[in-house]
Design brief:
heterotetramer, A alpha/beta (about 270), B alpha/beta (about 290), C mainly alpha (about 290), D mainly alpha (about 280), B: about 290 residues, alpha/beta, D-Maltodextrin-Binding Protein, domain 2, 2 domains, nine-stranded mixed beta sheet, 11 helices, 11 strands, D: about 280 residues, mainly alpha, MetI-like fold
Chain lengths: ~270, ~290, ~290, ~280
């Protein structure tokens, strides 16, 4: 599959391409033989029971797994056709391109403004005017501007949980990534805040490739264009069971295990 | 102290006095020889004399060193003299290895120390007083009794005509010059101070201990004597500067400044000052002047 | 690219400074051993450690009486400090209402902060005359032990309190639900569960006691004789070093470094014992 | 049903436990009360601003000892803080969980348990003798750096560890280098904790004597260079008590020390409280 027609536009069907991917923590195999093509300008949901390796997979995409001592990868993940595990790939640039939003909102204990400006500053943008522009645009894109424009100097920790998470999304947007990874971004939020984030995701999907790991199947069904279902094998290694358009996975799953999971028979 | 010194020696008198010191130094056979020219020069430009001298060692010499150095620094404001204690052996060792410019000792050099290349400058003579608590009724002792007390052979004051009470011997630590001199003059070559003795690391601490303990006996420099303790009459001679001067008091030793080789420059200046009229006037307040 | 260069450089600098502590430890061991070895070889390890006479003036170097002195003050102070410290730790962790805790805990912290010379000074001025009324000069093992007791108390209290606090609440609830009194709970459940931690606290307190120097010099009398009673003056290993190092030369100086070696070994032993206690403690808690 | 003896034991034991607390508190009150009672009357402007005469007299104030103490702390911190923070950063951010790291940790623990006088011996052998810094403030400060390093490292590491892991992830995910993450996010967030560590070390430096007694010389004069000897406030107390009869001056100096320590403890608690709040986001 090379091209998708999603969200009213034509997208590259293999923005991210995992090939024969195996992942180990020490001697424990966390992922087995993953082959997966993720389309650009779309939202891909990864679902599956706890411990199936979906978060591990997500963290491979911007190589956050590098932080884990003793982890090991076989196979490749290509971003726009280039293997991100290649020696010459600059992991710092990769992470700038592939941003991440975490399970729990984690704004830095500094002001709202400084939170957003932090990334651009580290990448060499120093001028105040430039930074102000970036902060405003990012907050606007994250639908947070109206709520915080009068208190940019306040500590980000004073915001509500939902606002904090949108701030974190704005922070990611500030470094202009192509891909945004979201690791259960709403699990710590109330339903209202969750809805806001989901709306935001739909808006962002026009310009960004979003991959979201979620426990919440309704959420996956609501927001995503494509869905990947992961499961744990008997030896606890995670593997990809089924992958396809969300509408198909949820209405007409091909694999019995997917159907069982979606209809709530286990998990 | 500074006040009295100012009253006693004006600057001009001091300059004149230094001349006398140089003269008396020559007459006394003190080696000042080649350095004489430079000395005279620095004296005439006294205001510009500058630098640092470090002195350390004997705690007996320490107070007089401090008074002397204060007087010296008042006359030569650009100079700094630092004074530390530690005991005579510290003075000997530190002067020999160059850790200090001047080592202070309240005993003569031991045989083993004579090969260290140290120049000896006698600063003063000092008596060692034997002290007891003010409540002690025993006021007189012979040298022989002292020896037996400090050797731990006499252990109760009632053996000496006093009240019943175990004698608490308080002595200085091994490195002390006062102890060294006391051992040499009272204990003799073969007798050691009892290992039961409480050891204090300075004259002051020893005096405090004796002042606070009714059965204690110890020994300190004349310079530290005051009304907080009794001083024992030894062989019927009282522990006074006069008796030490006229030779009747039996426990007298020299206080020394030691330098590695012949001193020059500022160090020589300082030692000459101390041994001169102005310096000796200060020394004479508590010790026996060499002049 | 400069930020990658900075990143690398920072990594190396930080890596090097990470080793400073180990390097210092090795240097200390090296210097103390190097300076102390001549004494061991000249005097003989046995004669040095079990020799009873310390007379540098006549080349006699035996430190037995000081080893005994150090051990005596450590043990006597521990006999006083351990019950007091554990009682205080139980009070802080289990019994006292927060009001009392808010007074007692800063008080314990303050005890840690007071300089050892201040303890020595108070001991010298206040305690020595009192002890001399019991007998002797007042400069004694007993006096030194009382001063040490106060100094090690905070170590025992804080480590014991931490280990009591680390016990899961379920232990307490379990015992109390069975109808045990508070004291029965403490004695039967809490103290046994916390005993490794308390043990570590006691051993670390011993380490502090055996290493204390200045306060000891001020109140123990520094006598070189073998002490026969608690009212006798004595000398500690630490005091021996501090009193004589500045003027010692030759074998004498080396013998003082050798004294340091002996002290070092004592401390290493105590530290290993404490580590064993702490490991056992954390294992027990993991299993429990 | 509880029998009478269990109740009685309970009462007795509680009395013992409370007794322990009361005795501890009393000990502190007696010590601090005595020193302040004896010492405070001796503290006045003149006492604080004149130099001690030194030697036998014990007369004079404490100015030069305060200056020596400040010099000593100054040089100590200049060396201690960067090395301590560097070492803590290595242990908390870089060190892999391997044998080498365990050796480093064991080294720090062991160093923390070594008595002050052994550091003194080491300083005497290395700084005073081999490097010929003589008895000086510099020798004392270098010795003190060795002594305080474990405290500085472990307290700083705790402060770094208290910074949430999620901040680190967030920073890295924005495409920072590791060092940018540490220097821009982790260290700034840990500043109150690091300041607490520094104050803790200052407190210990002020109270330390044994290792300085054998490396600093003890001159009571105003130091004019780092290669000169000096005496700290604590050493001054020792010299006054042991070499003079000026117990009133010793008590006054001790009272100054105790006041400083009380202030330092209060400051540490205040900062620690702030740090907790800040990390919890209630600022």
């Amino acid at each position: 599959m090379t091209e998708y027609n999603l969200n009213g536009q034509t997208c590259r069907g293999d923005k991210i391409k995992a090939k024969n991917l195996n992942f180990y923590y020490g001697s424990f195999q966390a992922l087995r033989d993953i082959n997966l093509d993720i389309p650009g300008c779309a939202i891909t949901a990864i679902i599956g029971p706890s411990g199936c390796g979906k978060s591990s997979f997500l963290r491979l995409l911007n190589r956050m797994n590098d932080l884990i001592y003793g982890s090991r990868i076989e196979g490749t993940i290509e971003l726009d056709g280039k293997n991100i595990f290649d020696k010459e790939v600059d992991v710092v640039d990769l992470r700038k391109n592939v941003g991440m939003v975490f399970q729990k909102p984690n704004p830095f204990p500094i002001s709202i403004f400084d939170n957003i400006a932090f990334g651009p500053k580290q990448h060499g943008k120093k001028s105040k005017i430039e930074l102000e522009e970036i902060v405003e645009n990012s907050l606007k894109k994250a639908a947070l501007w109206d709520e915080v424009k009068d208190k940019l100097g306040q500590s980000a920790l004073a915001l509500s949980g939902g606002q904090q998470q949108r701030l974190c999304i704005a922070r990611v947007l500030s470094v202009e990534p192509q891909v945004i990874l979201m690791d259960e971004p709403c699990s710590a939020l109330d339903p209202m805040a969750t809805l806001k984030i989901e709306d935001l995701m739909r808006t962002l999907a026009k310009n960004y490739t979003i991959i979201i790991v979620t426990h919440n199947m309704q959420q996956a069904a609501r927001v995503s264009d494509t869905t990947a279902f992961f499961m744990m094998e008997p030896d606890r290694a995670g593997s990809l069971v089924e992958y396809g358009l969300t509408s198909e996975i949820f209405t007409n799953p091909k694999d019995k295990r997917t159907e069982d999971y979606i209809t709530g028979r286990f998990g | 102290m500074k006040e009295t010194l100012k009253n006693r020696v004006s600057r001009r008198e001091f300059l004149a006095g230094t001349g006398v010191v140089l003269l008396s130094g020559l007459l006394g056979g003190c080696k000042s020889g080649g350095a004489e020219g430079t000395t005279t020069k620095t004296v005439t430009e006294s205001g510009e004399l500058s630098g640092t001298i470090s002195i350390g060692g004997s705690t007996t010499v320490q107070p007089v060193s401090e008074t002397l150095s204060n007087a010296f620094m008042e006359i030569f404001p650009q100079t700094t003299v630092t004074i530390t204690g530690g005991g005579s052996s510290v003075g000997v060792k530190s002067a020999a290895d160059g850790t200090l410019d001047i080592g202070a000792s309240s005993r003569e050099l031991k045989e083993s120390e004579e090969s260290l290349g140290l120049e000896v400058h006698i600063l003063a003579y000092d008596g060692i007083a034997v002290i007891t608590n003010t409540s002690q009724t025993v006021k007189e002792l012979t040298l022989e009794q002292l020896k037996q007390i400090f050797a731990g052979e006499i252990t109760n004051w009632n053996e000496l005509g006093g009240a019943d009470g175990d004698i608490v011997v308080v002595a200085r630590e091994e490195g002390s010059g006062t102890r060294g001199a006391f051992e040499e003059m009272v204990m003799g070559k073969d007798t050691l101070i009892t290992d039961r003795a409480i050891l204090q690391s300075s004259n002051g601490a020893l005096k405090t201990t004796v002042a606070g303990s009714s059965n204690a006996i110890g020994f300190i420099s004349f310079g530290y004597l005051d009304s907080n303790v009794n001083s024992i009459v030894i062989n019927e001679v009282e522990a006074t500067v006069e008796n030490a001067k006229n030779g009747t008091y039996p426990i007298v030793r020299p206080l020394l400044y030691l330098t590695k080789g012949e001193p020059d420059g500022l160090v020589k200046k300082y030692i000459d000052f101390c041994r001169g009229i102005a310096g000796q006037a200060i020394v004479a307040e508590d010790y026996i002047s060499i002049l | 690219m400069t930020r990658y260069f900075t990143d690398k450089l920072a990594k190396y600098i930080v890596f090097i400074s990470g080793f400073t502590a180990v390097v210092i430890l090795l240097l200390i061991a090296l210097f103390i051993l190097r300076e102390g070895l001549p004494a061991f070889s000249e005097i003989g390890v046995f004669d040095f450690i079990f020799g009873n006479v310390w007379r540098p003036g006549i080349d006699q170097y035996g430190i037995l009486s000081m080893i005994v002195g150090s051990i005596a003050v450590t043990i006597v102070s521990m006999i006083m400090a351990v019950p007091l410290g554990i009682a205080c730790a139980i009070l802080l962790a289990e019994v006292a209402p927060s009001k009392v805790r808010n007074i007692l805990r800063p008080a314990v912290e303050l005890l840690v902060g007071i300089p050892s010379v201040v303890y020595g000074l108070v001991g010298l001025v206040l305690l020595v005359p009192i002890v001399s009324n019991i007998g002797g000069s007042g400069f004694s093992i007993l006096t030194a032990s009382i001063v040490l007791m106060v100094m090690v108390l905070p170590t025992i209290i804080s480590i014991s309190e931490d280990s009591i606090r680390a016990i899961p609440a379920s232990y307490r609830e379990g015992a109390l639900a069975l109808g045990a009194t508070k004291w029965q709970t403490i004695k039967g459940v809490i103290l046994p569960a916390a005993k490794s931690g308390i043990g570590a606290g006691v051993v670390l307190g011993m380490g502090r006691a055996i290493g204390e120097t200045m306060a000891m010099i001020m109140v123990i009398g520094n006598s070189i004789a073998f002490p026969n009673s608690l009212l006798d003056a004595a000398r500690t290993l630490t005091g021996n070093i501090a009193l004589e190092i500045n003027y010692a030369t030759g074998t004498h100086e080396s013998a003082l470094f050798a004294t340091g070696v002996v002290l070092f070994v004592f401390i290493l032993l105590l530290n290993s014992v404490a580590t064993v206690f702490l490991k056992r403690g954390s294992n027990a808690q993991r299993l429990g | 049903m509880l029998n009478v003896s269990a109740k009685q034991t309970q009462k007795l034991a509680m009395a013992g436990i409370w007794g322990g607390g009361v005795i501890t508190l009393l000990l502190l009150i007696v010590i601090i009360g005595y020193v302040l009672l004896q010492g405070l009357p001796g503290i006045n402007w003149e006492f604080l601003t004149t130099n001690p005469k030194g030697g036998l007299s014990g007369e004079g104030g404490i100015l030069s000892t305060v200056v020596s103490t400040l010099y000593l702390i100054g040089i100590t911190l200049v060396l201690l803080v960067p090395i301590g923070i560097g070492s803590a950063v290595y242990l908390s951010e870089y060190a892999p969980n391997n044998r080498l790291t365990r050796i480093i940790r064991y080294g720090i623990e062991t160093l923390a348990g070594i008595p002050s006088i052994i550091f003194g011996l080491f300083g005497y052998a290395l700084f005073v003798t081999v490097l010929s810094f003589n008895f000086s403030i510099l020798s004392g400060a270098l010795t003190l750096v060795c002594l305080l390093l474990p405290t500085m490292i472990t307290t700083t590491e705790e402060a770094l560890k208290a910074v949430s892991y999620s901040y680190r992830e967030a920073a890295l995910a924005l495409g920072t280098t590791k060092w940018q993450m540490i220097s821009r996010i982790v260290l700034p967030s840990a500043i109150p904790g690091i300041v607490t560590a520094v104050i803790l070390c200052i407190g210990r430096a002020i109270g330390e004597t044994a290792c300085l007694y054998v490396t600093m010389g003890g001159s009571a004069a105003m130091p004019s260079s780092l290669l000169e000897g000096g005496r700290t406030l604590s050493l001054h107390v020792f010299y006054l008590a042991m070499e003079t009869n000026a117990m009133d001056k010793a008590m006054a100096t001790a009272a100054v020390l105790i006041i400083i320590i009380i202030l330092i403890n209060a400051l540490t608690n205040l900062l620690a409280g702030r740090f907790q709040k800040r990390l919890k986001g209630i600022s």
